[in-house]
């Protein structure tokens, strides 16, 4: 088992005066001050009864306090269960129970969902924790790479959301793999407009402490703040999803960004070619990447030097990673499987599913792609049914399970349809048992159970669900019919 | 156990056309061509009967072929035992036997020591291997970080030389630790004028394949070639020992090096302050480092940004490493102990010594130093008796053991004395039993057994060895007496 010094303690020793966090509001933390705040926060959490090995729900929007909380978890040796801020109380409680969470920490004081959660579990606001006295405990001075640090939820083709476990090692190898690919400059500053509760945002926080590099932290994406950050705040790298890149390019207009802005790392699903070409025209170094919650963020990334030559590709797997296409000869189009020390060991308390998904170290992603003759990855579609909407992953199965529960619904199929704003949005095709089942009726019934971004933008009523010979639903038929206007 | 793709195969996939090796003679290998040559070399070695797990002596001077051999060992899964080119046949045979070496590979065709070795063990010239047909074997496609890759010899305060085992993981973590400290630039090119059979040179070869960075390889140090490399061959980093840095600064005179030359990494013992100050004056970014064979090269290194402010310091331990001073409060001057994933697991087949040297992951270095109030390491002296002569470590015990065997010698103590060319050189203080024991007599007797750089530059005859109350030899008394001219 590999052991190393605690990352934040070590970075505070190496780079005490280097900025660890900057925000558009002018907040600044150095590695020394972040270390002091985080260790103190851990001791305050300890005073509330939180201890090593506990599973702590974190229900928060991006903030310096959230990063303090993230590091405090590692000082305690507690596991962070990161909850999507957009979920309903019902969805949150599912994950809280599933992950054996014993306390929830939040910065969402006046949220009615918090009131709902409080009926079942202790929920403490960050400010409440900060008011506690510190308890004299031995905080972790070392990190064991095999220990679990975070749990983040994702869904599958069938069944309920599953908690992806990340060890410290998974996060470490992800950060190192990224550095070997994008290199490391003394002047690097990485902008995080993505939520830290998703692995795409969280991983920036890890790179910051491992590299000794400032994170430029946005509470949430704002095109004005991001534009300003790249133009005037010396940001050199930014992680974005398609919709953010589109807005930034529109804002940029005929201008260009400073040359020091060396990478716009684009994740969260295939990018429209028009976006990549516009980026090329404006000399914005858009670098496409492919990753999953299970791979602790990026797994394959285009090198800057290939960005323009291999437009549309997600590059090659990072140095520690291996990737294969599940065809007889690793050629042509097939399922993408991946292996490496940044790949999760499995889903929390889902041993059977974990064993099916990860075989001899290879994770079966369900995503479809091919490698070109130089070994560059082109992702054709994320898991055949996955809907990526403004960077959020939406799993039809989860919506279908909810709508099926509505009385009067016989069958339901959820598919993604193109949307000019979000890339893709979910719609539902329902076979009803009775006439009283209307769009409004269904939407009202499911509202308490689904985060708003998952709620279908339209409910279509169809006479029959199209199925193939093996009785499998033909989602693409529904998508085409909707596109052609045959289903209304 | 952490598994990753084979480093060279992976880098050949990521950066096929990037230069892996450049030499002053204009030789160039790309990662693709180096990969092809190395894999072919492994298959040719296999044809000679070399197989996975074998211990292979490598007795070679720096050359592209030697790097090919280094990677071929990893394709076979064989262990490389790296032999110092300056040793006598007698010293070589000791290491060969001790490390259970079954074959020796060399580029020293016409060397009489090779003829001597051939009496005991198969010795193949690289050119002989290259003439073999290739054997169809499965070469290693993955690397397991726990596997042993190299063995390199070092000596201790007492006893014979010991084989330090390095796993792939030790070399990996060393390379990553260095990158996090010195950062990684797209344009980096690292000059290696140090022998690859020492860990200081070998580690550059590892960084090259892990970073995807060219190594600028010198057969041996030449001030003209190094000067030219920095001035005109776009070298950005160079590893040197004191004597090399001094010669380079002398050659540089009143001029300066290009700004792109960002680091002269100075290892191999404490540097004279005058050198560091002269470097400062000429704006040569001399960065002092502290490392041992046991730490797989650098363990602590000054960051460039602190180079001028903390002159004389070896900086702070690299990110994955921990360092303590063995005093009751980690303050003041004491023995340096180190821990981290780049630290060896032990000495080959020396379990008792390994257990004594490495306790709970902490390696007791025997070196003496202190940390200043900002945590910067100052190394006062390497292991109290260690003599560092032109970058080579010389262990008095080894010389003493040899001289003790000479008939007529009663007692012998070897100490280092200052030398304007080499920094330090060994001299011996002998108590003889008889008058026929002269300097010439002793030198002739030990010559077959000691590499020339280890042979004492003077043999002094003394009436009695100075010892303290506990009967321990007072080496410093001898050193002072010699300095004052009281011993002649």
Structure description:
The structure is a homodimer of 488-residue chains. Chain A is α/β, with parallel strands linked by helices. Chain A folds into 2 domains: 3-380, Rossmann fold (3-Layer(aba) Sandwich), CATH 3.40.50.12780; 387-484, 2-Layer Sandwich (GMP Synthetase, Chain A, domain 3), CATH 3.30.300.30. In chain A, 31% of the residues lie in helices and 26% in strands. Chain A is built from 15 helices and 27 strands. Chain A has a 9-stranded mixed beta sheet, sandwiched between helices. Chain A has a 6-stranded mixed beta sheet with strand order 7-6-4-5-9-10, with helices on both faces. In chain A, helix 8 links the parallel strand 11 (190-192) and strand 12. In chain A, helix 2 (31-47) crosses helix 3 (64-76) and helix 7 (168-182) packs across helix 8. The longest helix of chain A is centred in the N-terminal third of the chain and has 17 residues, at 31-47. The first copy, chain A, is globular and about 65 Å long. The A-B interface holds A 2-5, 10-11, 13-14, 142, 169, 176, 179-180, 183-186, 210-212, 303-305, 316, 319-322, 339-341, 361, 375 and B 2-5, 10-11, 13-14, 142, 169, 176, 179-180, 183-186, 210-212, 303-305, 316, 319-322, 339-341, 361, 375.
């Amino acid at each position: 088992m590999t052991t190393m010094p605690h990352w934040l303690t070590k970075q505070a020793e190496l780079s005490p005066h280097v900025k660890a966090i900057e925000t558009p509001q002018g907040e600044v933390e150095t590695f020394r001050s972040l270390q002091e705040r985080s260790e103190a926060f851990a001791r305050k959490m300890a005073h509330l009864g939180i201890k090593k090995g506990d599973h702590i729900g974190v229900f928060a929007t991006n903030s310096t306090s959230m990063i303090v909380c993230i590091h405090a978890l590692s000082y305690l040796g507690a596991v962070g269960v990161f909850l999507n801020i957009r979920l309903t109380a019902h969805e949150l409680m599912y994950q809280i129970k599933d992950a054996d969470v014993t306390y929830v920490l939040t910065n969402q004081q006046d949220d009615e969902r918090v009131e709902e959660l409080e009926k079942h579990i202790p929920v403490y606001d960050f400010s409440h924790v900060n008011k506690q006295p510190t308890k004299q405990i031995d905080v972790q001075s070392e990190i064991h790479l095999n220990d679990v640090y975070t749990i983040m939820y994702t869904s599958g083709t069938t069944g309920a959301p599953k908690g992806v476990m990340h060890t410290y090692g998974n996060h470490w190898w992800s950060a190192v793999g990224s550095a070997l690919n994008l290199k490391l400059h003394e002047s690097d500053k990485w902008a995080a407009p993505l939520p830290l509760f998703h692995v795409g945002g969280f991983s920036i926080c890890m790179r910051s402490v491992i590299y000794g590099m400032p994170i430029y932290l946005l509470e949430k994406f704002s095109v004005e703040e991001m534009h300003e950050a790249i133009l005037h705040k010396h940001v050199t790298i930014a992680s974005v999803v398609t919709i953010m890149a589109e807005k930034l390019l529109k804002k940029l207009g005929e201008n260009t960004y400073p040359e020091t802005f060396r990478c716009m790392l684009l994740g969260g699903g295939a990018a429209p070619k028009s976006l990549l070409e516009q980026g090329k025209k404006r000399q914005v170094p858009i670098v496409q990447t492919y990753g999953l919650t299970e791979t602790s963020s990026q797994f394959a990334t285009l090198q800057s030097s290939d960005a323009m030559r291999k437009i549309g590709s997600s590059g090659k797997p990072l140095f520690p990673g291996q990737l294969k296409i599940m065809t007889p000869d690793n050629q042509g189009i097939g399922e993408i499987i991946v292996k490496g020390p940044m790949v999760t060991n499995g889903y929390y308390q889902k041993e059977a599913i974990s064993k099916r998904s990860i075989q001899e170290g290879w994770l079966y992603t369900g995503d479809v792609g091919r490698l070109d003759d130089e070994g560059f990855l082109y992702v054709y579609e994320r898991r055949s049914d996955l809907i990526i909407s403004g960077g959020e992953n939406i799993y039809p199965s989860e919506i279908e399970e909810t709508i099926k529960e509505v009385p009067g619904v016989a069958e339901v199929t959820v598919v993604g349809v193109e949307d000019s704003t979000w890339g893709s949005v979910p719609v539902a095709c329902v076979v009803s048992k009775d006439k009283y089942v209307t769009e409004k009726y269904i939407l009202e019934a499911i509202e308490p159970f689904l985060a708003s971004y998952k709620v279908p933008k339209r409910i279509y009523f169809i006479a029959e669900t199209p199925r193939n010979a093996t009785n499998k639903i033909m989602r693409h038929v529904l998508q085409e019919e909707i596109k052609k206007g045959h289903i209304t």
